[in-house]
Amino acid sequence: MVPMSESSSLVPNAWLLYCRPGFEHDLVAELCTKLEAKGSDAVDRLEWQMDPFSGYVCASLPAGEPANVLHQALRLNHLIFARQTLVALPPLTALAPDDRIGPIVEQVLASGWSFESICSEQPDTNEGKALSGLGKALQRPLESVLRKRGALKRRAGKRQLHLFWTAGNAVQVAMSFPGNRSEFPNGIRHLRFPHEAPSRSTLKLEEAWHEFLPRDRWEDALYDGAMAADLGAAPGGWTYQLVQKGMHVYAIDNGPMSPALMKTGQVEHLREDGFVWTPPVPLQWLVCDIVDRPERVIRMIERWLLSRWCRFSVFNLKLPMNRRWEEVSMCLDGLEERLNEAGITHVMRCRHLYHDREEVTVFVELMD
């Protein structure tokens, strides 16, 4: 991260993060736990703004204390409940309808930072979505002014300026840095639903692949002819994605599968219990979207991984109504511990994806 200019008079002391509305407390619990685990002494000095169902949280340090230390300590791809992570300036409120741009320009110039692009955003709520037109209308005039004032440049370390509108007269100016941000507006990856898929749950697996597997690895991991298992498969939303990649799939579920999927000849439907079924040979992929208690799903996944029955796995953990962060961290820590005890080298990541609701998606790759 490029350091602040010595001439800067306004230090960005706020840490702004987006999340799914209703998960604000879970995100704050995750952030505090992970900061304390890193030995950070900032937790006691943070002042939190986290209105229920607002779709964002903001942690402010005392004036003059930069928030980029927190931003760097907990990177976005290591967080579960955050969609976006930004370093922010104090909110601008009571903006005049005839001059919203002026105060924004003044604050940006006072920060001493320059940027290559601007992104107008708003909370992922019904009220927030109504503000999208305002952000779009102001963006071009704002770009023109900032370019003339030298704050918007062709080369500025790929930094991006974010305008987070919370009301027609209120905005928070924030900034993001390459390698530690979502490249999608509002931190949301929108995918097109394939109408031939048997359920909308198909988007969960597609988003997981985009999130956890770099595109240059798809040929190695998602190849034609690979073998996969889909536990809790019916009616076939996740199986559809596997079939589209040319895989042969064991679909394990007592419920009916999509007739169109069965006609492909790539699916073997077994009416068995996914918690006890054993594959006849080691597979490339295990996927699972079974609705059950997280600890029961984790024990099943653990059996697969310790037995090395698959190389890659993607599975969802359905979350309780309360203490969701505590439940997720307990499950993941337990799985991590048992894999380490078994000497199994692996990569594990977990994210609350856009197409998830009351669940998180976990990815595990066995490395040897």
Short précis:
The chain is an alpha/beta fold and 368 residues long.
Task: Describe the model.
Residues 199-260 form the Ribosomal RNA methyltransferase FtsJ domain. S-adenosyl-L-methionine binds at residues 201, 234-237, 253, 273, 289. By secondary structure, this protein is of the alpha/beta class. The protein folds into 2 domains: 14-187, VC0802-like (2-Layer Sandwich); 202-366, 3-Layer(aba) Sandwich (Rossmann fold), CATH 3.40.50.150. The chain is built from 11 helices and 14 strands. It has helices spanning 24-37, 68-73, 101-111, 126-129, 132-148, 202-212, 218-221, 237-244, 259-262, 294-306, 324-341; strands at 14-18, 47-49, 56-60, 84-88, 117-121, 160-167, 170-176, 227-231, 248-252, 267-270, 283-288, 310-318, 346-351, 359-366. The strands form 2 sheets. It has a 7-stranded mixed β-sheet with strand order 2-3-1-4-7-6-5. A 7-stranded mixed β-sheet has the order 10-9-8-11-12-14-13, sandwiched between helices. Strand 6 (160-167) and strand 7 form a beta hairpin. Helix 6 packs across helix 8 (237-244) and helix 10 (294-306) packs parallel to helix 11 (324-341). The chain is elongated, with a radius of gyration of 23 Å.
